[in-house]
Amino acid sequence: MKVLSEGTKYDSCNQGAVCHAFGPDGRCIQLYKTLLTNTCSGECTYCPNRYGRQSAKASLTPEEIAKITWSFYRKNAIEGLFLSSGVMGDAERTAEKQLEVARLLRNQGFKGYIHMRLMPGTPLYLLEEIADYANKFGVNVETTSSVNYSEICPNFDYNSDVLQRLKWTRDLINKKRKEVGYGGRIIGANDTQFVVGALSESDSEIIRTVDDLMDRYELRRPYFMSFNPVPSTPLENNPSPPGWRETRLYQASYLLKDYGLKAFDLGQVYDDNGFLADTDPKMLLAQSHPERFPVNINSASLKDLLLVPGIGPVGANRIIRSRPISSEKELMRMGVVISRARPFIEINGNRQTNLSSFMEAS
């Protein structure tokens, strides 16, 4: 169990044997995470489980995974299962085994959350069957283009094995959400993952790809996993990216996902090489457009409020419902981070006058 939990290092959730998913209402769901096996026929250049690499090997049968999941579930230690795997010969055989786990659990009355991370090239008929049992399922894109993908995942094709599966996943999610009598089960949105720093791709390339996947495949949640060099892999001598890069990519992706911005709106938050700085990109975006501010709290549109640092979607909607607003204390009670928002807002004609000084200090 320990070996297989650690073997999910390059999957969406990677902190210990328990990871987290988030429901449509934002509720955090704890999941037992494991691989079926860390023996893999794939040769992904960054992966500790790649074919031919010497390491401790382990496998669990579908029956064993079901038993372990039930044990944790009955103790209220988890609310579901996150299941991935090494490639067991090919994607079809691997998906069949993953489906067997989900079918076992559901037939035994399991009502918890099941998240399947599937292999590139998983056949459509198996995706359709998995959709009958799992709450969420999907394939990782890992990188931004077919050329890059062939470099780090040489066994698979980016367009046919990955992007086509994202399309099928999108269609199956929409179908399941429309079905009547699905038992009230949560149907998770399309998600995927990028390995950040394995190649030289810039942050602007990654964010443009995220934006494109949101448009084409209704991607809701991109995950970012920082590359760490693994001994006895082709990329063992490549450096790791700075730890904060992953955080800043998440923040930039939230501007697309939750704030209604597009990739082209973020052009001024990158350096000359297309990389983010270790600063909140929303703050950088606001500072690069002083002509937009201050916004009047009592008359600004939702779109304009969302551009203010310290005001998120929840706070912006609360402001609109509660107007007129007369003080910063009212904004703080609505969840506004007033220390960040103050230079960019006006309340009843009152504003911080030294905006340029604030921006220079930041």
From TrEMBL:
Keywords: Iron, Iron-sulfur, Metal-binding, S-adenosyl-L-methionine. It holds the Pfam family Radical_SAM. The keyword Magnesium does not apply. Signal peptide: none annotated. One of its GO terms (molecular function) is metal ion binding. SUPFAM superfamilies: Radical SAM enzymes (SSF102114), RuvA domain 2-like (SSF47781). Residues 21-265 form the Radical SAM core domain. This is Radical SAM protein. The lineage of its organism: Archaea, Methanobacteriati, Methanobacteriota, Stenosarchaea group, Methanomicrobia.
